[in-house]
């Protein structure tokens, strides 16, 4: 029972990070119909930026909460600029091109980001200074650290804020209009180019927060970390129904729990034949399963073209 | 190209003579390492042509293509090495590898081909990773793939008593292993080129191109789009499977390291850079991108001379250039260096055709 509860807790924390990254995929997909392959790598850049800033500040003896805030701020700024630049330089010129073209460009951008990061930060694992020392809280046999609780609550706050923003603000309304029909939204006076650029910037900023959470949680960062993170977050977005913001949140949390439970129990279930080194394939199995059984995802409407 | 058949035959003969003389000339001028590079380039031509069927003809973006290469290579390696002490002949194993790869292609394609293209890209990416994770971990509880250590001492190609990893002297000409393999690979690459060209003009090839241009219209014209897309997947996988078997016998050693996502991306780069859907373009792309890393090897000493230190590792520089090439090609020359005529028309007309949406 306590193992089960522990895996659920771990899964929810991990899932809330996936959900944040998935939001970036799903918002861009909703508006442009483009899978932004580079999104995971934008998160990676955010993570490594935060890590570097935190390292520098910790060395200067800045108190932990302030260091963390500044690191987050730096990561968000860098990622916002990166998101805007990528959209402007790589995706906007191709908006009218056949489908394959922006997809291939996105892969190119992803590789460029990875190897630029390898150039800047090197290829070794970088460790986050332990500026927050997690203390454990015991809940009926399972452990929850205050760091985990912090990550989960922060993620929930960001997601709630985003949902409110899209529902209630003027820009959010413009985003929804652009998603429904770009041409008509333009005719109604929405500056479509600005809305699309804003979507990229917003998604990248949320990705930066997710990246910071990953380095806080695992304590290490790496130039290739965006690849797996991106793939899993994409799976989460598809699971929830791609293009659907609420779905991305649900899909992320669900995927985190599925992965934790599966990785926790696979050893027992197969009599030790398969270990948790198979952890990374569950996301793919979920992805393929969803695409076969319910391609529109849990919360997506099934439109023939999208599936 | 000229239309005079006699002149054309003369050109073909000249080309054949040049290709036969090539490894010996390169050996004499540049050294044996470059003959090996040419061998690898021929393998990549086969891989590029296989991916070209999927991406170039049928317009399905496959990001896990190297998995089929891996399947072919492991199929050969497991059944022709001391791993299980099985030593089958390559005459059985190459077709078997092709068949197994094709089965994997259909297995991957069947659930996903109903979906639109961008989902396919992600699923194939995931598939490539799954294959690699399995190859890496299937050394316990039963040791099948030997895990990250890979499989060693794989049998070379050989018939009767003649094995290609020996050096032979025939009529005063020395055939080192790289030379012998060159001719085998040349024959296979030529076959791949021939098959690709014939496929392009065939009923199936035209159906693929119709699906690429407009799937809805194609199915309205009576094309069974699902089966033909599956066929494209299986056909592309077959090329990869054969190339994988040849690779395993050529290297004598394989490990999951050789089949990463970056290798898939590299093959994709070859197809995109050369010209999607054009056989000549793909061959050009494969040759260019195989030679590039070798040329970049000179970049390290250059940096040392000019800047006093090696800032960019040549293999990283290669990946940076690949990424940049993918982006720039799509922005400025989407049809590739040597585009196919239909593709060029389609991409040039793209703006007009899509403006109405």
How many H/I helical runs of chain A? 11
Q: What Rg of chain A, in angstroms, do the CA atoms define? A: 19 Å
Q: What is the share of helical residues of chain B?
A: over 70%
CATH domain topology of chain A: ABC transporter involved in vitamin B12 uptake, BtuC
First and last CA, distance of chain A: 39 Å
The CATH class of chain A is Mainly Alpha
Largest beta-sheet details of chain B:
2 strands, antiparallel
Percentage of residues in DSSP E strands of chain B: under 5%
Work out the helicity level of chain A.
over 70%
Count of strand segments of chain B:
6
Mean pLDDT over all positions of chain B: 82
Q: Find the biggest chain interface.
A: A-B, 51 and 53 residues
SSE run of chain A: HHHHEEEHHHHEHHH
The oligomeric state is heterodimer
Poorly predicted tracts of residues of chain A: 303-307
* C-alpha termini separation of chain B: 40 Å
Question: What's a quick, concise take on this entry?
Answer:
Chain A is mostly helical and 307 residues long. Chain A contains 11 helices and 4 strands.
SSE arrangement:
The complex is a heterodimer of chains A (307) and B (357).
Chain A: H1 2-32, H2 39-60, H3 64-91, H4 100-121, E1 126-127, E2 136-139, E3 142-145, H5 146-168, H6 170-180, H7 182-187, H8 192-218, E4 220-221, H9 225-240, H10 245-269, H11 281-293
Antiparallel strand pairs in A: 1-4, 2-3
Helix pairs in contact in A: 1-5, 1-8, 1-9, 1-10, 2-3, 2-4, 2-8, 2-9, 3-8, 5-6, 5-8, 6-8, 9-10, 9-11
Chain B: H1 5-29, H2 32-57, H3 66-79, E1 80-81, E2 86-87, H4 90-112, H5 117-137, E3 158-159, E4 162-163, E5 168-170, E6 173-175, H6 177-201, H7 203-213, H8 215-220, H9 225-251, H10 261-274, H11 279-296, H12 299-307, H13 314-332, H14 341-355
Antiparallel strand pairs in B: 1-2, 3-4, 5-6
Helix pairs in contact in B: 1-2, 1-6, 2-6, 2-9, 2-10, 2-11, 3-4, 3-5, 3-9, 4-9, 6-7, 7-9, 10-11, 10-13
């Amino acid at each position: 029972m306590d193992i089960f509860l522990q895996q659920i807790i771990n899964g929810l924390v991990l899932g809330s990070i996936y959900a944040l990254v998935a939001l970036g995929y799903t918002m861009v997909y909703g508006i442009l119909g483009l899978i932004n392959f580079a999104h995971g790598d934008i998160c990676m850049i955010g993570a490594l930026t935060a890590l570097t800033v935190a390292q520098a500040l910790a060395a200067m003896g800045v108190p932990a909460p302030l260091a963390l805030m500044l690191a987050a701020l730096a990561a968000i700024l860098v990622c916002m600029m990166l998101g805007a630049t990528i959209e402007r330089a790589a995706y906007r010129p191709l908006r009218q091109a056949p489908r394959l073209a922006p997809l291939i460009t996105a892969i190119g951008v992803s590789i460029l980001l990875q190897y630029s990061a390898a150039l800047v930060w090197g290829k070794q694992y970088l460790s986050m200074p332990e500026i927050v020392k997690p203390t454990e809280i015991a809940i009926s046999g399972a452990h929850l650290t205050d760091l985990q609780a912090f990550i989960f609550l922060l993620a929930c706050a960001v997601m709630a804020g985003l949902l409110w923003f899209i529902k209630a603000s003027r820009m959010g309304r413009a985003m929804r209009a652009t998603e429904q029909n770009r041409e008509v939204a333009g005719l109604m006076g929405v500056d479509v180019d600005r809305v699309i650029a804003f979507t990229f910037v917003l998604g990248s900023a949320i990705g930066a927060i997710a990246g910071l959470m990953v380095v806080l949680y695992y304590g290490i960062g790496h130039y290739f970390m965006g690849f797996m993170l991106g793939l899993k977050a994409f799976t989460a977005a598809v699971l929830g129904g791609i293009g659907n913001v609420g779905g991305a949140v649900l899909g992320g949390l669900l995927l985190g729990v599925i992965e934790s439970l599966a990785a926790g129990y696979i050893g027992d279930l197969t009599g030790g034949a398969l270990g948790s080194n198979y952890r990374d394939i569950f996301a793919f199995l979920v992805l393929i399963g969803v695409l076969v059984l319910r391609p529109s995802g849990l919360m997506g409407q099934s439109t023939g073209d999208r599936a | 190209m000229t239309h005079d058949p006699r002149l054309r035959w003369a050109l073909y003969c000249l080309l054949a003579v040049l290709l036969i003389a090539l490894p010996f000339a390169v050996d004499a001028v540049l050294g044996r390492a470059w003959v090996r590079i040419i061998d690898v380039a021929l393998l990549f031509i086969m891989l590029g042509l296989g991916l070209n069927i999927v991406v170039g003809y049928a317009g399905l973006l496959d990001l896990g293509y190297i998995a089929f290469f891996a399947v072919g290579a492991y199929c050969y390696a497991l059944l022709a090495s001391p791993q299980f002490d099985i030593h089958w002949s390559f005459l059985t194993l190459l077709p078997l590898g092709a068949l197994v790869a094709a089965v994997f292609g259909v297995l991957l394609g069947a659930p996903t081909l109903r979906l639109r293209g961008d989902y396919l890209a992600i699923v194939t990416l995931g598939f490539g990773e799954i294959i690699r994770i399995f190859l890496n971990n299937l050394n316990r509880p039963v040791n099948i793939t030997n895990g990250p250590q890979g499989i060693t001492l794989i049998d070379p190609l050989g018939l009767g008593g003649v094995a290609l990893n020996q050096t032979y002297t025939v009529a005063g000409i020395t055939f080192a292993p790289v030379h012998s393999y060159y001719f085998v690979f040349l024959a296979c690459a030529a076959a791949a080129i021939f098959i690709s060209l014939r496929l392009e003009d065939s009923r199936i090839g035209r159906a693929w191109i119709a699906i690429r241009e407009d799937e809805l219209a194609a199915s309205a014209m009576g094309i069974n789009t699902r089966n033909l897309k599956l066929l494209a997947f299986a056909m592309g996988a077959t090329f990869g499977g054969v190339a994988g078997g040849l690779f395993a016998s050529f290297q004598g050693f394989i490990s999951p390291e050789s089949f990463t996502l970056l290798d898939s991306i590299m093959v994709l780069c070859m197809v995109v850079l050369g010209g999607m859907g054009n056989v000549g373009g793909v061959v050009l792309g494969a040759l260019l991108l195989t030679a590039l890393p070798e040329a970049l090897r000179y970049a390290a000493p250059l940096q040392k001379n000019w800047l006093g230190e090696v800032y960019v590792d040549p293999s990283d520089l290669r990946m940076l250039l690949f990424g940049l090439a993918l982006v720039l090609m799509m922005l400025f020359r989407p049809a590739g260096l040597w585009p196919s005529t239909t593709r060029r028309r389609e991409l040039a007309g793209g703006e007009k055709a899509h403006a109405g949406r």
